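Hey,
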Amino acid sequence: MKPVTTTAPTANTKASKIFAMFLCAALIISALLSSCANDRATDSADISETVEETTDLRSLYPSPPVKDFGGYVFRIYSDQNKVFNQTEYFAEEQTGDLINDVIYLRNRTIEDRYNIDITFTEDSNIVNTVKSCVMAGDDFADIFSVNSTADYFTFGRQRYLYDLNKLSSLDLDQPWYDQRIRTDYAVYGKLFVINGDFTIREDLREMSVTYNKKLYEENNFENPYDLVINGLWTFARMAEMAKVVTKDLNGDGKLDRHDQWGLMTEVIAGWYLYLASGNKTIKFDGTNYYVDIGSERMFDIFDKILPFLGDKSMCICMDDGSVQTDLGSVWLEATRMYVNNQALFRTGTFGDTVDLRNMETDFGVLPIPMFDENQKEYYCMVHSDCHPKSIPITVEDAERTALIFEALSYESMFTLRPAFYETFLDEKILRDKESTKMIDILFESKVYDLDYVNSITGLNTIVNTIVQTGKGDLASKIASIQQSAQKKLDKFMGYYIDG
């Protein structure tokens, strides 16, 4: 089989420039850190000039037009649900933390360039704030993010948000925006949310596979990076290896949190392993949206995925209710087990690797495996709490807001993006040079799923229930929802046809 294409596909140009950018990341970050060390109050314009001197990439991507906005206050709102303390959009001061300081300097650069003041508000009740402010016609924020992606679609059909495709100051074709979200979350050509280099949140919330190098090498498995690059990293290959590794470590005759597992996983894995096949339950033919469930291929995929996840002789599902822990959280228990070399593979979000920073055993990260070797790409689902950005309809000057956001996103491509790579690769979270290529492939493989975030067809819930309980006949369940699923989809999409 031909090797998998490792350059970004047409649908996603965001990652195509990452490798070249990483080559200059050391120079950029070195300049930033040097400036921080020499002068904590170093002017951000000086930092920007230093960055420009260390890379030629800016010449390939001319900056957005510069305007004097006369001290305008650019307001960013977000909820308080944090999954990783380096995902925010604002820094009060320089602290010596790389990501924090790069965000601080990026914001200072844009403030100086456009004569604005950037503010950030954390709101624990952000959904209600958006509702009440928009209904009252209150210009409360320039951009905002909420924890559940479903809320954006609710806001969209209620006409609370700008269609970003209609704002000329946003050049959404540029690589500082995630191109996959533009296609996956667009509805009849309308786009209410966007992600990109402005924040690393969606990268951290992308599903991936972490593998334990000690257990992997003890079993003399093939080089995993070669498998990925050559298009041989498949679900069947992962399952084959997982079967070998599970052991009753304490000899008590049962398998639990004290033992060694082939795969540590979670309830929603049934869904993102299905998406990893390249299939989706909702499709668009250029004119209409339609439900695609109950096909022979769908059953073929689930007939392999669901029994594997339900096999308690090799898979431990941390959140299905079977795992006991005295740590207060099954996710803390999962980290303890993995750090203690009790799992060969762990599926979860890429951000989970942050909790492994102090793990003595080396580990690596891989994309979610293909279903079979006939696929041309990997497909890795992005979690529903990936915090895309929206512009509320109450913004006084949407083009001004769009231009400032464009500038922040542009600047992030040359500063925050390299810092992100530096943090994960040079600060010993990921510990080998090959991980650079794996991250590239991972980020090229993002999938955003309408059905998953909005629970339209109901199949997502059915699959989750089967994984969690180990019970239920998929065929009969699918038969029971096939007629209603299309009606639900038609109703959901009907809100977006006009307006």
